[in-house]
Amino acid sequence: MLAVGDKIPVDIPVLDAYGDPTSLAAFAGQKLILYFYPKDNTPGCTTEAINFESVRKDLTELGWKVIGISADSCKSHEGFKIKYNLGFTLLSDPDNTLSAAFGAYGEKKNYGKTYMGIIRSTFLADASGTIVKVYPQVKADGHGEAVLNWIRENLGAAL
Q1: Residue 148 burial by CB count (10 A; 0-12/13-18/19+): exposed, middle or buried?
Q2: Taking a C-beta distance cutoff of 8 angstroms, is the pair 33, 67 a contact?
Q3: What pLDDT, on a 0 to 100 scale, did the predictor assign at position 91?
Q4: Which residue among 2, 45, 138, 140 is the active-site one?
């Protein structure tokens, strides 16, 4: 998993919620909250998305951009954004290439079964693309507030 001080991979192609090709290079010079989540419209992922949306205005005022990333299709992302009135960017990583580059894709265990999937994790990157904070295993409920509070307490307007 990428760690504090690492540079984010900016050249891996993904799609936005509307099917347009992009990469993290499109967000160069911006402070990013990159949160990886398993699947649109599931209880934990919906909770996490709604939570980020509830603090998005505060994060934006502090200069941070929220980006959610999963392997879901663009159509799924578009519906998810509309259904929950999400005002932040969702990226589709159908081959899990970007997720794997961050270390947010790997072996998971659930109900005694082992499988490969996206590991719910979040990375904060400053405007130079350097990771300043990693949340390696996220609990969905309250995560947006936790990120906002960490930024306020540790960074303020410093970056």
Answers
A1: buried
A2: yes
A3: 98
A4: 45
